[in-house]
Amino acid sequence: MSHYDKLMAHYQSIHHFNHAQAMLGWDAAANMPVGGNDARSNAMAELSVHVHRLSTQPQLADWFESAQQETLTDAQSASLREMKRQWQDATLLPEDLVQAQSKAGSKCEHAWRTQRQENDWQGFAKNWQEVVALSKEEASIRASALGTTPYDAMLDKFEPGTSSAQLDGLFDEVKTWLPELIEKALAKQASEPILLPQGSYPADTQKALGLEVMKLLQFDFDHGRLDQSVHPFCGGVPSDVRITTRYDEQDFVQALMGIVHETGHARYEQGLPKAFAGLPVGEARSMGIHESQSLFFEMQVGRSQAFIEHLSRLSQQAFQAQQDPVFAEDNLYKLYTRVQKGFIRVDADELTYPAHVILRYEIERDLINGVIHYQDVPELWDAKMQASLGLTTKDNFKDGCMQDIHWTDGAFGYFPSYTLGAMYAAQYKTKMTQTVDIDAAIRSGDLSPIFQWLSDHIWSQASLYSTDELVTRATGEVLNAAHFRKHLEGRYL
Ligand SMILES: [Zn+2]
User: Fold this and answer.
1) 353 in the same domain as 300
2) Per-residue pLDDT for 229 more than 90?
3) 233-288 per-position pLDDT tens digit
4) Residues 402-412: pLDDT tens digits?
5) In total, how many domains does the chain have?
6) Which of 422, 351, 413 is nearest to 388 (CA)?
7) Pick the catalytic residue: 109, 130, 138, 262?
8) N or C: which end of the chain has fewer CB within 10 A?
9) Which residues make up each annotated binding site for Zn(2+)?
10) What is the whole-number distance in angstroms between the Cα of residue 305 and the centre of ligand 1?
């Protein structure tokens, strides 16, 4: 048996444990009675320890060295590279740091749930200080291994190969045109009448409607399902993808588009190459590329005029409301493209969303690089919020820097993925238009040509290439914010 084959078997074994872990996690969020929580947490923690042990076994270092001397195909070399990346990631941090982070993160996140409601920045800061300090320690260890700045080393966990120099270029450009575009869109929409949903919309009916929309999007129900959870997500494994949503019986708008979004994540997973199943090279390329799929489904397909026609027809049927003007095509389109300045990222529309992300990116970059102190964050948040959206968060911590869960347990470097995904999606659209009549495919109800393009260029490529290579092979160039601008101007002006 070659060393490459030994490594392959080893990583497939790790994958089986991760499979079990994913299903336990989905069950905990979607099905489990409250009384099961403690035992489940213990079972999942035990599995994590086991996976960590498998991922850091001492003989792996020798296997990697020997495998590098073997004759490998291009795909096998890529596979070896990705296994090694996961191995380096698993072995990089000392165990006591990982444990301290896990403890400080859980404590901070748990207390944050009530501190946020109470607008208690001082209380939060006491716990968060520790989380930030440990994250900076992690960043400095990663940075010396990768030869990057501390923040870039954290970014690498979610966006391998992407640097803050690249992000600065992209985001600074967006900042030059976004504020004006938001103002123009708001002025245009101010005079347009819109009918807001008036419940009630029973959850069962919303689910039935969601399943119809998933069929239109060719979700593979033999390899996945739809359930409910408090925080919507896409989990499971490629052969059995679990997506969830949450229903508001007063308003169907968000849940319905949430299902479109999660279906995009799910189809990427379902479309990953079977030949590399269970191997790191067969996994999604990055968080940003994952989000590029969910946002292609949501923003490029889901909120298009052509797709809204389907949503209008299907929702009228589902709610038996053929005469209800709320479901009329032009009203639904307005509901799904309405721009509003607000404090909260997760409630933000497509156009103001990047402003929320860029603000977070700039703060976390400077925080992890040691340019600013954790106590500077509320003031900086307020200043940046005023500059980008004209809103002040002075003394309003709960709608400011305390609103997201990400930083409470040290997930620094994650936020850029959202806007990178939106930018990639716009760029795919530009390229896809050259060979696919996207609107015609959507209107016909057979969206196969769109999915075939995504499958050929993104899903089937998994992690065979770096992100830049993947995107260049798909679109002819690396990420370029001009496509995003063109898309937003086309939709909102
Ligand atoms: Zn997503």
Assistant:
1) yes
2) yes
3) 999 999 999 999 999 999 999 999 999 999 999 999 999 999 999 999 999 999 99
4) 999 999 999 99
5) 2
6) 351
7) 262
8) N
9) 261, 265, 291
10) 22
CATH number (domain holding residue 334): 1.10.1370.30
Tell me the sheet residues that pair with 248. 251
> Which structural domain, as residue segments, surrounds residue 58?
3-159
Beta bridge partners of 228: 245
CA distance linking residue 487 with residue 426, whole number of Å: 6
Taking the centre of ligand 1 as the mean of its atom positions, its distance from the CA of residue 300, in whole angstroms, is: 14
Among the candidates 141, 159, 177, a domain finishes at 159
What's the CA gap between 307 and 217, in Å, rounded? 10
> Which parts are annotated binding residues?
261, 265, 291
pLDDT digits (tens, 9 = 90+) for 433-483: 999 999 999 999 999 999 999 999 999 999 999 999 999 999 999 999 999
The mean per-residue pLDDT over the stretch 82-94 comes to: 95
All residues with CB under 5 Å from ion ligand 1: 294
pLDDT tens for residues 377-410?
999 999 999 999 999 999 999 999 999 999 999 9
Q: Which of 128, 159, 190 is the last residue of a domain?
A: 159
291 CA distance to ligand 1 middle (Å): 5
User: What is the distance between the alpha carbons of residues 481 and 85, in angstroms, rounded to a whole number?
Assistant: 29
Under 8 Å between Cβ of 393 and 343: yes
Tell me what pLDDT residue 199 has: 84
Token output for 98? 């990982």
- 364 catalytic, yes or no? no
Distance 5 CA to ligand 1 centre (A): 34
